User: What shape does this take?
Amino acid sequence: MIYIESGSTDPYFNFGLEYYLITEKMFDEPVFLFWQTTPTLMVGKFQNTLEEINLSYAKQHHLNIVRRMSGGGTIYTDMGGWQFTFIIPGKTQEISFGEYISPVIEALHNMGIAGASFNGRNDLVIDNKKFSGNAQYLYNGFTLHHGSLLFDTNIEQMVQSTTVDPYKIISKGIKSVRERVTNISEHLPHPITPKEFKTQMIESIMGGAGYKTYILNDADRVRIEELAISKFKNWDCIYGRNPKCNITKTGHFVGGKLEINLEVTHGIICDCAIHGDFFGSLNHEELSKSLIGVKYEKEAIADAIAPFDIEHTLYQITPEEFLSCICP
Assistant: This one.
């Protein structure tokens, strides 16, 4: 098995690296990666991004948003956590987790965390609390298995960024999550740094020090950056693959209640209806029509509603308030 150090905490680069290793730089033996990212929300291949994350919070806190090529649920990861990837050549038709999860559990057992185990689906747990989610896909004759490891992750940010209900009380949300998830650092017999954790994990999984490595060269990195942008870091990849969903946005302002119902498919507004007890001369039916075919993102929506002079056609509801109500 070959270990490759990505040298990057950019999630788009790291997913680009995975893709590069199964489509262009294809090794004929297993490859192992162990990597980190800056705060990121990783959405599963078949999920609707708009339904899975708190988009306004993610934008406000500058969280990366990326869609994986694997299925499963949305996960939050940051510099307090780690990601691992196994890339195995050889065609297979079956998704199987056990053989890739076992080395991770064994490494944790070697660190003194005897309670680490597999829950039978795709999670790793310690005393029935989740610390790792796993996903897998088959592509181009390779099996790619990757997973997350909560080491010292910011649980509060995890809760807020993946909670779409604006009325959810954050303290209760954190309490609920803390009853179901845990950080690995809380279970170690002796404290270690994240860097020490990484070293021990890699050496255990790779069979000790002196393991085989491949160092990415400049040409590799240039190509990976290109793949990161074309395959992962663009609007179409993140939002354009969303299935159909219905979204209701409600705002309470001095001028009254505003309710906006949207139908969004592949990130594009397909239908819109505006309701409420507001006052004004706004032609809300024409405004609704103007939004059909528009990307469901703030800049595109702002451009579409600009001609309607909301400032003078809605009573005591400002254009900024209207935009904040309708936007993700």
